[in-house]
Amino acid sequence: MNLDPDALSVGDDLPTFHVDDLDRTQIVRYLGASGDFNPLHHDDEFSRAAGQDGVIVPGMLVAGFASAAVTDWVPIDAVDRFRTRFVGTVRPGDSLRVSGTVAEVETDRTGNTTTVEISITVDTADGATVLEGDATISP
């Protein structure tokens, strides 16, 4: 995207990023690519024995969707920092909505934007927040 950092204002929203019906195939592909074979993410019986209602989606896969929302908006080399906090559980079949809002814009003495702080949220289709995060962008 061709973004004019000097045109950004606090409260501006990033384009919403959607993941519809996160299925087990997507989860297994992620597990293979990441090398994360924790049975919580692929074995229902193990997950239930661990106190879950079944398989849970890896948090880092959800964080990856959040980072994709940011890098769909700005080039990856403009992202100086990206932080997340997992606040809920994602299950196979969930649909996710990643949203972001400009939280702060810093400028230099001449008024040119130097950094942009973005707050990020990932919610399930039923409105439960599962990830909160932020990113610092340097145009």
Automatic annotation (TrEMBL):
InterPro entries: HotDog_dom_sf, MaoC-like_dom, UPF0336/Enoyl-CoA_hydratase. One of its GO terms (molecular function) is (3R)-hydroxyacyl-[acyl-carrier-protein] dehydratase activity. GO terms for biological process: fatty acid biosynthetic process. Residues 22-119 form the MaoC-like domain. It holds the Pfam family MaoC_dehydratas. Coiled coil: none annotated. This is Dehydratase.
